[in-house]
Specification:
The chain starts with a strand and ends with a helix. The protein has two domains: about 130 residues, Response regulator (Rossmann fold, 3-Layer(aba) Sandwich); about 55 residues, Orthogonal Bundle (Arc Repressor Mutant, subunit A). By secondary structure, it is an alpha/beta fold. About 50% of the residues lie in helices and about 15% in strands.
Length: about 200
């Protein structure tokens, strides 16, 4: 049996996925979680073979959870589900160690097939998203600029960002100015919107 953990903050979707997987003779859902923190605790307790996690849910979200699961349970393959995937999300998910990336709008039997694939050591990426990712330009921001922009997303003051990143306030301002310029934005808020829409944040 392939032991599966499901993590999604939308209970109806989580239960529907559990019901679909319960129809499979070789798959058992051993735990469900409404957020990333609970999912991590459940993974440690139940030691699933595969974790199917929502891209956007209460922290840690799917991509950060993939990183944490990789540290806590290296043998657990992670499949990220998304309702609105972007090529940037795909790249970040794969870099975080996820073995599968599937749209929530996929056919009903697709999830079970993907679970089997990643459990056997293969990867699976939604074909339409993979094609889009190949045609989209790389993110023009450096990792440090992305980190700074992510922290600035909710109007966080420069001084606070400087403390969190261990950078001088002037360096933070320079990074934010570079983000605005490289993304062709009018201000920080627009730079955040552009980067988030592209899946870079």
């Amino acid at each position: 049996m392939i032991r599966v953990l499901l993590a999604d903050d939308e209970e109806l979707i989580r239960q529907a996925l559990a019901a679909l997987l319960a129809l499979e003779p070789d798959i058992e859902v051993v735990a469900q979680a409404p957020d990333g923190r609970t999912a991590l605790d459940a993974a440690r307790a139940h030691r699933p073979d595969v974790a199917v996690v929502d891209l956007e849910m209460p922290p840690p979200g799917g991509i950060d959870l993939a990183v944490e699961l990789g540290r806590a349970l290296p043998g657990c393959a992670v499949v990220i589900l998304t309702g609105h995937g972007r090529p940037g999300h795909l790249r970040r998910a794969l870099a975080a160690g996820a073995r599968g990336f599937l749209a929530k709008g996929a056919p009903g039997g697709a999830l079970a097939d993907v679970v089997r694939r990643v459990h056997s050591g293969a990867r699976y990426v939604d074909p339409a998203l993979a094609a889009e990712a190949l045609s989209q330009p790389e993110c023009p921001l450096t990792p440090r600029e992305l980190e700074t922009l992510r922290l600035a997303e909710y109007g966080t003051p420069v001084a606070v960002i400087a403390r969190r990143t261990h950078l001088a306030a002037g360096t933070v301002r320079n990074h934010l100015a570079a983000c605005v310029q490289k993304l062709g934005a009018g201000d920080r808020a627009e730079a955040v919107r552009i980067a988030r829409a592209a899946g870079w944040l």
